[in-house]
Specification:
binds carboxymethyl coenzyme *A, 3-stranded antiparallel β-sheet, 380 residues, globular
Length: 380
């Protein structure tokens, strides 16, 4: 039977209102995104990711003293117990960094000082949210070292979250430009309403499970190429195309063959994704500055054809992909970077869910067989 048979059924929950939130608003008609009332372009261009995380988790932009205090706490909470690294080292070297990241959080959870607190302990949840935020860049950065057979590095207190990831990933002090580009992208990736991974987090804690279990659900859900995994896939697609003079033929062929173009389209934005508008500007400036315009030239051609032929626009994953590539970040770390940012939104949503919880448990329509008669196993 088709979905049209059931008036209340919306495949993929498209258009269904799943809750009321005060965290962020997507305004498709004007291609805008606001976190607690603030335009994401302002947050990305004028502030730092830590300010955005404070805005999300505590509900207001920090003053200088509050920002300093948050940065100090993050620096103090950045390290993870040695046992977490030991657990991560047990994974095969070809494990995807998203699985290493998930393993890192799963291994860390029982070490958290508020591990045994009930799911509804709001103060403990806020403290957990800050520790999750602090540890994410360490788990991803040192996870990259571990899979190369290198020992984890000790995070530096003076680093921002973006710098901490870059330092651990490369073993070198990051330059200001690289840290700035990454920092802006973290703000753009931080929060996005009831997207699939955030919804998974909310479903998880709606059973009165804990924030760490929610983060594990979030990471698993983010990984797929229709969601966060698209940034990796978009870069692999650009690599497959290889050169601007191949792009036009490639995209026409892909569309003829009904291929999904990774990094394009969005359930919520039917025009432009505001995050993509900002990130494209950053990615193009960076590409020009570094003299690596190959990817941005291919990107321009794909964008033009997608817009004129399909009326579909790039989402944030498309420009983020080639910006990260120009920064020299390994491709399979792109989605884990999304985790470093999105833990701020996930935790905020889980706290909001638990402050006014109701078990999330929708219905489904049964279309299976009816009136089956049980037959003993020896007769089947
Ligand atoms: N390439 C080609 N055609 C597309 C694309 C695309 N990237 N996106 C949508 N379409 C077409 C689709 O084929 C369909 O056409 P038709 O009606 O002729 O069958 C129509 O547009 C509607 O697409 P849909 O997949 O039903 O729409 P949706 O709301 O379920 O999809 C989406 C949203 C993000 C899953 C989809 O656009 C997509 O698969 N994009 C590629 C993956 C991607 O970039 N994901 C990242 C999303 S943004 C970052 C994040 O938050 O994770």
């Amino acid at each position: 039977m088709s979905a049209a048979t059931y008036p209340n059924y919306s495949p993929g929950l498209e258009g269904v209102i799943g809750g009321i939130s005060t965290i962020s608003e997507i305004i498709s008609e004007t291609s805008s995104l606001v976190y607690r009332g603030y335009d994401v372009h302002d947050l990305a261009s004028k502030g730092c990711f830590e300010e955005t995380a404070h805005l999300l988790i505590y509900g207001h932009l920090p003053n200088q003293a509050e920002l300093d205090a948050l940065k100090k706490t993050l620096a103090n909470e950045r390290e993870v117990p040695e046992q977490v690294y030991t657990a991560m080292k047990q994974m095969p070297k070809n494990a995807h960094p998203m699985d290493l990241t998930k393993a890192g959080f799963v291994a860390y959870a029982p070490f958290d000082p508020d591990y045994a607190k009930p799911a509804t302990d709001d103060a403990a949840n806020v403290a957990k949210a800050i520790r999750i935020l602090a540890k994410a860049s360490t788990i991803v950065g040192n996870g990259h070292r571990i899979r190369q057979g290198l020992e984890p590095l000790k995070p530096k207190a003076e680093h921002t979250i973006a710098q901490n990831f870059l330092y651990l990933m490369s073993g070198q002090e990051p330059d200001a430009k690289t840290a700035h580009v990454l920092d802006s992208s973290l703000t753009l990736y931080a929060e996005h309403g009831y997207n699939a991974s955030t919804f998974a987090c909310r479903v998880t804690v709606s059973t009165l499970s804990d924030l760490f279990s929610g983060v594990a659900s979030g990471i698993g859900t983010l990984r797929g190429p229709l969601h966060g995994g698209a940034n990796e896939e978009a870069m692999r697609m650009l690599q497959e195309i290889g050169a601007p003079d191949k792009a036009e033929a490639w995209i026409h062929d892909a569309l003829t063959n009904k291929k999904k173009i990774m990094g394009f389209g969005h359930r919520e934005y039917k025009k432009r994704d505001p995050r993509a508008i900002y990130m494209t500007k950053v990615a193009k400036e960076l590409s020009a500055e570094k003299g690596q315009t190959n990817w941005s030239e291919i990107a321009d051609i794909l964008e033009h054809v997608m817009e004129t032929e399909k009326n579909i626009y790039p989402n944030v994953d498309f420009p983020a992909a080639y910006a990260y590539y120009v920064l020299g970040i390994p491709i399979d770390l792109y989605t884990p970077i999304f985790v470093i940012a999105r833990v701020s939104g996930w935790s905020t949503h889980m706290i909001e869910q638990l402050r006014n919880n109701r078990l999330i448990r929708p219905n489904c329509i049964y279309e299976g067989p009816t009136s089956a008669t049980w037959v003993p196993i020896s007769e089947r």
